[in-house]
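Supplementary notes (optional reading)

For those who missed the lab, this is the record we used. Protein: MBL fold metallo-hydrolase. Length: 248 residues.
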Amino acid sequence: MRADVHQVADGTYLVHGSSTNWVILTEGDAVTLVDTGYPGDREQVLASLAEVGGSPEAVAAVLITHAHNDHLGSAEYLRAAYGTPVHLHDAEVPHARREFLHQVSVGTVLRNAWRPGVLPWVVHALRSGGTTHNPVTAPEPFPTAGALDLPGRPVPVHTPGHTDGHCAYHVPGTGVLISGDALVSGHPTSRIEGPQLLPDMFHHERPRAVASLDLLAELEGELLLPGHGPVHRGPVRDAAHRARERAL
């Protein structure tokens, strides 16, 4: 399947995978890859790097918003095959190693199977490797506080709730917020469009996920690149406020 790559700013690309987005930040010949889709999206990940003039060897680091399989999919492949460092928040490192799993349970999914979109989403997740054992063998915490010395100079922003160590990435130079699952603009199991939280069943601690929207509302930017859904253009502050209103 061909990668669906959209250039949204200088050196910044939002890629729509089979059901999850990832982001490519470029600087010269070097690349920062934020998230990697499902395990089944690997060919799309590699194709998207090629489409922007990159390659797996050019990836300076993989940054993961959180360690669910639909975002972690090819991280271990890139680490093992190319020596690419995989960075996450301290609290998410053991999650990536699969010392525990903060993820919606099968029972919860079954109880919500009557909701529109849930069964097709489940079928796709199973086919794409969403329930496979897919740890990162040697994930690493961020090497420094503040902006990372990587293409795009992304700044990790701890946004717990969806998982304990969920991080968004702010790119002040281009006014971009890579929000992962802390703030999305759509999802196969959601009937609404635009800025929103994921449906309640997906959050490890929903009250913290709601509170993290206030952290995102403090960031300057005009481009929201979510983990699910299309790019959202307009003040990040307004998007975060809109999602909070919908969550209450």
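If you only remember one thing from this example: The chain has a mean pLDDT of 95.
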